[in-house]
Design goal:
Layout lengths: L1 H19 L13 H22 L14 E5 L4 E5 L10 E10 L12 E5 L5 E11 L4 E12 L2 H5 L25
Parallel strand pairs: 1-6
Antiparallel strand pairs: 2-4, 3-5, 5-6
Helix pairs in contact: 1-2
């Protein structure tokens, strides 16, 4: 912004010189002299510098939100979604998201430069730590981390019936109305 004001000041100076003439001739025909031009230029530079300082606005840092830490029981080939949509910039907008894994069994993030990304869980239990970095439209960066504890459960565990007893125990009499259709 300061460059803009200096540019405007130089344009004004050029117009002043043009209005004064090329500098030849007598000073009696031209009411502006060199000392007045120098004073005007100095005043313009002072005003330009003060105006530029007043217009500079403090940029607030963005707020990164990678979500809450959690623990999850998973099976092989299950996907976990990382969501950074709650990140924001109080005085602008987010221009870049970047997810990266800090620790745990290595996983492949599907789209690490998006607000949301996903990965397939590792085949062994692990604690995974990810970091989300967000950059605002003025270049400030904020980060947040999320810890996910993955408890790998083999698929055959889920194949077991949840109720070890048969639905109709054979030692009890059969419900006589079980095979009848109910009228509607």
């Amino acid at each position: 912004m300061k460059i803009f004001f200096k540019f405007v000041a130089h344009i004004i100076i050029i117009f002043i010189f043009a209005a004064c003439g090329s500098g030849s001739g007598s000073s009696s025909s031209n009411p502006i002299n060199n000392s007045q031009i120098t004073e005007t230029v100095e005043e313009l530079e002072k005003v330009t510098t003060e105006s530029a300082e007043e217009l500079e606005i403090d940029n607030l840092a963005p707020i990164a939100n990678a979500g809450d830490n959690y623990q999850q029981n998973v099976t092989s080939s299950m996907e976990i979604l990382l969501i950074g949509n709650e990140s924001y910039d109080p005085d602008g907008y987010i221009v870049q998201y970047e997810w990266k894994q800090l620790s745990g069994r290595t996983v492949h993030l599907s789209n690490p430069y998006n607000s949301t990304t996903k990965f397939i869980v590792p085949s062994k239990s692990s604690t995974l730590i990810f970091e989300l970095a967000v950059t605002d439209n003025h270049g400030l960066i904020a980060t947040d981390q999320i810890t996910i504890s993955v408890n790998y459960v083999p698929m055959h565990y889920y194949d077991q019936p949840s109720n070890p007893y048969p639905v109709e125990p054979t030692d009890q009499p059969k419900n006589p109305y079980y095979d009848q259709l109910l009228p509607y």
